[in-house]
Design brief:
There is one protein chain. This protein is α/β, with parallel strands linked by helices. The protein folds into two domains: 270 residues, Purple Acid Phosphatase, chain A, domain 2 (4-Layer Sandwich); 185 residues, 5'-Nucleotidase, C-terminal domain (5'-nucleotidase,  domain 2), CATH 3.90.780.10. The chain contains 15 helices and 25 strands.
């Protein structure tokens, strides 16, 4: 006898709730089909379901996301970095208290040795005909963030070295829910041949029909849930082994919506807006924002973060503010709309020479107009860099491009060999936009405060 085993999954929704009613409609349909045919099936989420760019996730601290997962009937989820490092320790500890599903993540530890009840390193599911499915979860080890929040993420490979053999002893099939990224998934498949399926996320890769590495099938469904993933395993009971592994990602971007889910989202949005309708300040004049010019609010915000972090230099790009504010009442919701990014300040150490290079790079047309995707940035363009602690004098070339003429600190030229402390948006500590920042050996992330928290304090201090 041959038995088919089905897994359906979502990954990296990032609170793109406009797509969620389609997700619900599709999954209700496949669940009904599997039930009708008496098939064994399970439903998983691979993390980054939450993104505090959306007011529902911001105001309800992710618990609205959990409600939506409950409504569909997920069997297990793992956590992504957006669940793990954009909430305080307390808020993450309570995030899944009302979940009707377990959270599986084998490498999440608490620095106080107290773990939430909803967390498990691995799970076991059993098919209708007795096949045991062992499920392991892993998340990306951003320990520069996690440890400041009271957590630690163990090395994924060391975790698997201990756990795979243990799970194998009681399981016929091993499935890994991996919020690690494609290159890590491929390396895990090369190292751990006992893992049959890796369902991935984090790097937003789309594998329409899966990828096979060392007899492990790897799959992922892109980002924002425009695709839903499906894995089909065929177990031969006579041979007592898997004889076929299939993986697919189905485009549901034009799928019909589930009206009940749309109504639930409307209800959650009303709740969120009530919470965010808290007055922060009442202003007498409008506050202007311009991505390509120096503005008062960006200068005051940059000064404020420099003051609060007690560093030599602060620099923040104007694209962090998506819009200004009219005169009158400014609420938490207004501030969230203006600065929705899950971005924290970060202190790095740079030599004077590196400071000059960063200043020059950040004032180029290419930098200011760059449309950054990812690293927490949820804006349109990076915009102009604003400085505190530095006086930057620029000129204009004959072709109209701007260039740096002079950079002074306390009216003196920057000491090229001196090491300065610089606070900047943490997005620049990743990637290649500002390599001097990314390669800094010291990175001190200011958690759990987002840039918008400092913006609220700036507004209260200077505009009330």
């Amino acid at each position: 006898m041959q038995e088919k085993i089905y897994f359906y999954y979502t990954n990296d929704l990032h609170s793109n709730f406009s797509q969620w009613p389609r997700v619900t409609k599709f999954l209700k349909g496949v669940k009904a089909k599997r039930e009708l045919e008496n098939d064994s099936y399970w439903l998983f989420d691979i993390g980054d379901h939450v993104d505090r760019v959306h007011p529902i996730s911001e105001a309800l601290l992710g618990k609205g996301n959990v409600t939506l997962l409950n409504d569909i009937g997920y069997d297990a989820v793992t956590i992504g970095n957006n669940e793990g490092i954009t909430f305080s320790h307390h808020d993450l500890f309570q995030l899944y208290d009302q979940a009707k599903f377990p959270v599986v993540c084998a490498n999440l530890e608490s620095l106080d040795d107290r773990l939430p009840e909803w967390l498990s390193p691995s799970l076991e599911f059993i098919t209708h005909h007795g096949i045991k499915i062992g499920v392991i979860g892993l998340t990306a080890p951003f320990n520069d963030y996690y440890e400041l929040l009271g957590w630690h993420i163990r090395d994924p490979y060391e975790t698997l070295e201990k756990l795979v053999q243990q799970v194998k002893e009681s399981s016929d099939v091993i499935v890994l829910l991996s919020h690690l990224g494609l290159s890590e998934d491929e390396e895990i498949a090369r190292r751990f041949s006992d893992i049959d399926v890796i369902i991935g996320g984090h790097t937003h890769h789309l594998l329409r029909s899966g990828e096979e590495v060392n007899q492990t099938i790897i799959t992922a469904a892109g980002k924002h849930c425009y695709y839903i993933g499906e894995v089909i395993l065929t177990w031969d009971h006579k041979e007592k082994r898997l004889i076929k592994k299939e993986a697919y990602a189905t485009d549901i971007s034009e799928y019909t919506v589930d009206l009940e889910t749309e109504q639930k989202l409307n209800t959650l949005l009303v709740q969120a807006e009530e919470i965010l309708d808290t007055t922060v300040v009442v202003t007498e004049k409008p506050i202007q924002v311009d991505w390509y010019k120096h503005t008062e609010i960006m200068q005051l915000l940059t000064n404020k973060i420099k003051q609060e972090t007690n560093v030599d230099i602060a620099m923040f790009n104007t694209g962090l503010l998506l819009n200004g504010f009219p005169a009158g009442r400014i609420t938490l919701g207004d501030i969230h709309r203006a600065c929705p990014h899950p971005i924290n300040p970060c202190i790095v150490e740079l030599t004077g020479r590196e400071v000059i290079e960063v200043v020059r790079a950040s004032l180029t047309k290419e930098f200011m107009e760059f449309q950054l995707k990812g690293f927490g940035f949820r804006g349109k363009v990076l915009g102009r860099m604003i400085f505190s602690g530095l006086h930057v004098k620029t000129g204009i070339h004959s072709n109209g491009s701007e260039y740096v003429q002079e950079v002074l600190m306390n009216k003196e030229p920057v000491d090229m060999d001196h090491i300065y402390t610089v606070v900047i948006a943490d997005a620049f500590t990743f990637g290649r936009l500002l390599p001097e920042v990314a390669k800094s050996e010291r990175k001190n992330y200011i958690l759990p405060d987002f840039i918008r928290d400092f913006l609220a304090e700036t507004l209260k201090e200077y505009y009330s």
